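Can you make up a protein sequence with its backbone structure tokens?

===
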Amino acid sequence: MRDVSIIGVGQTAVAEHWDRSIRDLSVEAIAAARQDAGSDRVDVLFVGNMLSGELGGQENLATLVADACALLPIEAVKIEAACASGGAALRAACLAVGSGAHDCALVLGVEKMTDHLTDGVTSALALAADADYEAAHGISFAALNALLMRRYMHEHRARHEDFAPFSVNAHRNAARNPRAMYRTPITVDDFVGSPLVADPINILDSAGICDGAAALLVAPSSEARRARRPPVRVTASACATDSLGLAERRDPLVWQGVADSARMAYEQAKVKPKDIDFFEVHDAFTIVSVLTLEACGFADRGSALKLAAEGRIALEGDIPIGTMGGLKGRGHPVGASGAYQLVECVLQLRGEAGEAQVKGASIGMAQSVGGSGSVAVTHILQA
């Protein structure tokens, strides 16, 4: 397998783009990535998306995007892995370029969610749960994560306000990201007083519904130095799975698929958790951040809340997370979120993250999670 690098990135602002279509957002992000790379070559397009058919009435999405970007007749495929779709699209590109099948792969993560009422979006998101034993009984992802949070609070004698540092950190970082949706800092009191969604989860525990697109260009590392911007090498790309239904797991607080994906990535990159300079965590809910940090080896079981309380997840901490706001602060356009995480990783490793820059960052990790930890795609990138 050839070494591969990311040579260009582009993104739209994350927002409620009521006046723009999924096609419009895709074209903008792709044009930005190609300009960033200083290259027009594209051999294959992988589009990470979860809900274009359900919410937009549009499947065959990759061909639509290829046509809109004047890329026909290249190979174009949509990749769906629930909320991990954006990360899965980059993995497909890494395999395509690493194997030698293609020399320049374009990755797009895109989602258009805000044209529908919240109830419709909630129902669509439930498609990533177990249709027979979870979704059919009306349980939403907020409710599933509320069960996890309640169990975690019981086992570790935690209070709901102990989760506040995760949201406070996300909004503080998002305030430094001009493309983030939620750029207003919050306090612990704001978090505690936020309206409930599914007890004990409240609005400030939860990432918001939004629209956006992010794109990356992938090429062999041997050719990457020709790019306009400094290339960032992909040193690990790993995917692992777990059962869809929480009730089928021996211990719902052990996210084994997340742990396995991270372990394989560490082995590929020949690094350990202590070597990671920052972590773009899939913080769809604060409890997801907690379970992920513990599964990935950044905290022992039951100690992730302490990690956050001590400020160690902040930009100046020893394991900064969600450096440009994460899903919570930037927004969570589900199929696109993994691509946004990776774009932000690249900006950090180039030293181009502006006010959100992690000083001296040379190794970054991004992990996209679909369902309740049922699929996890982990990438490790190095400057």
